[in-house]
């Protein structure tokens, strides 16, 4: 997959049923990272649960992808980036040469960061699903009993000329 193709691919990828995007061994380079980041940040990827980019050449841009997942993506539960060549050389203190002061994005800490993101996003998904089910039970009982009209508010059906299916 060339970098030009990845730009077109990620900008047009809109699939509400896609749960796993496996881009392993397709030759992605660091030039593809901005397109991957844009997709991971977009609302179009909200149904995606796993991103696999194993065996590519993402190199130092891998840190930017992981930073984006850590800071701004709350729905991706699995991200795999093993065997991406082209990473910057590591100096004596375990940090890549020329990198900033973000210790969560160095060597083994990157994988711990991804693990924490996975745990956080799984917890958030579970909480949202649980709260949605609780709200659904309450709203069903409220709508089926007709008590939503007795609280002094205008009912939904009164706002429209045609009756609603649950009236």
Characterization of this structure:
The protein is mainly alpha-helical. It has one domain (3-124). 44% of the residues lie in helices and 5% in strands. The chain has a three-stranded parallel beta sheet. Strand 2 (50-52), helix 3 (61-72) and strand 3 form a beta-alpha-beta unit. The longest helix is centred in the last third of the chain and has 39 residues, at 107-145.
Q: Can you tag this structure with a few keywords?
A:
167 residues; mainly alpha; 3 strands; disordered C terminus
Element-level helix/strand string: HEHEHEHH
| Total number of distinct structural domains | 1
**Form type:** elongated
In the sheet with the most strands, the strands line up as 1-2-3
Give the termini separation: 55 Å
Give me the count of strands: 3
Secondary structure: helix percent:
40-55%
Poorly predicted spans = 88-101, 156-167
How many DSSP helices?
A: 5
Structural class: mainly alpha
Global mean pLDDT: 79
DSSP strand content: 5-15%
| Rg estimate, integer Å | 23 Å
Question: Largest sheet at a glance?
Answer: 3 strands, parallel
Question: How is the secondary structure organized here?
Answer:
Blueprint: H1 3-12, E1 20-22, H2 33-41, E2 50-52, H3 61-72, E3 78-80, H4 107-145, H5 156-159
Parallel strand pairs: 1-2, 2-3
Helix pairs in contact: 1-2, 2-3, 3-4
């Amino acid at each position: 997959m060339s970098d030009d193709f990845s730009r077109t691919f990620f900008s047009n990828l809109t699939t509400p049923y896609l749960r796993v995007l496996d881009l392993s061994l397709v030759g992605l380079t660091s030039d593809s990272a901005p397109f991957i980041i844009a997709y991971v940040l977009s609302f179009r990827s909200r149904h995606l649960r796993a991103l696999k980019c194993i065996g590519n050449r993402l190199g130092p841009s891998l840190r930017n992808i992981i930073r984006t997942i850590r800071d701004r993506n709350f729905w991706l539960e699995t991200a795999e980036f093993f065997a991406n060549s082209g990473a910057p050389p590591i100096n004596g203190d375990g940090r890549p040469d020329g990198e900033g002061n973000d210790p969560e994005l160095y060597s083994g800490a990157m994988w711990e960061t991804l693990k924490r993101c996975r745990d956080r996003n799984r917890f958030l998904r579970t909480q949202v699903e649980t709260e949605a089910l609780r709200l659904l039970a309450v709203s069903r009982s409220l709508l089926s009993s007709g008590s939503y009209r007795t609280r002094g508010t205008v009912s939904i059906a009164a706002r429209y000329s045609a009756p609603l299916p649950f009236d």
